[in-house]
Amino acid sequence: QGVDVVQPLLARLFGMAELRFEVAGGSGTEAPLAYLRLPEAHRLRGVLLDRDLPDAAGPAAPPPPTQQEYGDTAPPPAAAPAAAPAPQPEQEIARVDPTWLVVGTLLSSEFVGSVVFALVAVVASLVSGEVVGMAFVLPAAVGAGSVLVRGIVHQWGFVLTDTGRGWRLRSGLFDLRSQTVPLDRVQGVALVEPVLWRRLGWVKVQVDVAGYYGSSSSGGGPSASTLLPVAPRPVALGVLARLLPGWPSTDVPQRPVPSTARFFRPVGWRYLGVGLTDEVVVTTRGWVKRRTDIVPHRKTQSVRVRQGRLQRRLGLVDVTFQTTPGPVDAVAKHRPQHELPEWVTDELDRGARARARTMTGG
User: Fold this and answer.
1) What is the rounded average pLDDT of the residues 220-234?
2) CB 108 within 8 A of CB 151
3) pLDDT category, 212, cuts 50, 70, 90?
4) Helix axes 109-128, 98-106, angle to 10 degrees
């Protein structure tokens, strides 16, 4: 599914790198190859990706003509096989500013939650005169530190480029990691907007990549499912316009849920919605951490319907547009039951037509 080049700090100092091979269905990196000189690692990755994409080497040379095709005349000299095209230079798509990364991490829900939890534990201990609450400070501090490492150290210097074989993600303050995301294996996209980011207009972009979920983050590094750790919304929409050409640059209009959904989400029910275009289905949900999940019709694996006991009494259902395992979770929460034919039968028909258009090039 992919070949990643990883440079731990010590290997980076000596100009060495490790190749990690990701396979579909694997829970971790398969058969890592360590260590190679960095130019050799990049060359070997290019060879493997060219084998995975045989069209990149040009059309195969035709077989030599037989004597019967030319009678007694000597056949013309066979044409030389087409030479493989020279590798194209990488084109930068987006770069994450260090200021965005630091501020975004400090304002993330996980970091703020850990700090607030630690402060509450300290205040409770001081007010009660007991030191029992202090036992919760260390886990909270560890959690906050873990968020800082994942958000800043692992994502430092994040650059997204187009290699011609896919999109390459590079990041890392100490350990440098380079991953290539094959665009044809991207199954869905999610925009995540924590509440403190929304005033700044910042979002996080995640994707479902077939075969990568749970394996590309081995070793504690960043996952290939994170296409942009933090970026202003216009930058993220520009990336999406290149990733999903059929998706419009403006937000897809969302259909709200009935007011009866407030029995399940007294505050967040106003932020639930679902909409579609000819190419994609889009769902939104969340108040503290707002999510917008986008799934192209041609990538929909199945449509799942779930209805709890109280939902049955209120005539509501949850409809999930399933893709391969990953961070994208396109679920239309608490939809009116009479909409089921539109979201199930019609969506399956849209997916079949979209896949047919893809196969025929239409």
Assistant:
1) 80
2) yes
3) low
4) 40
Structure tokens at 135: 């036992």
61 φ, ψ to 5°?
-70, 145
Model confidence pLDDT, tens digit, residues 84-138: 455 567 899 999 999 999 999 999 988 998 888 888 877 777 777 666 566 777 7
Q: How is residue 86 annotated by DSSP?
A: P
2 CA to centre of own chain: 14
Provide φ and ψ at 242, rounded to 5°. Answer: -80, -30
Please write down the long-range contacts of 146-149, taking CB distance under 8 Å and 24 or more positions apart. Answer: 147/105, 147/108, 147/110, 147/111, 147/114, 148/105, 148/111
Please give the torsion angle defined by the CA atoms of residues 88, 94, 98 and 101, in that order, rounded to the nearest 10 degrees.
-130
Quote the pLDDT of residue 98.
94
- Omega prior to 35 cis, within 30 of 0: yes
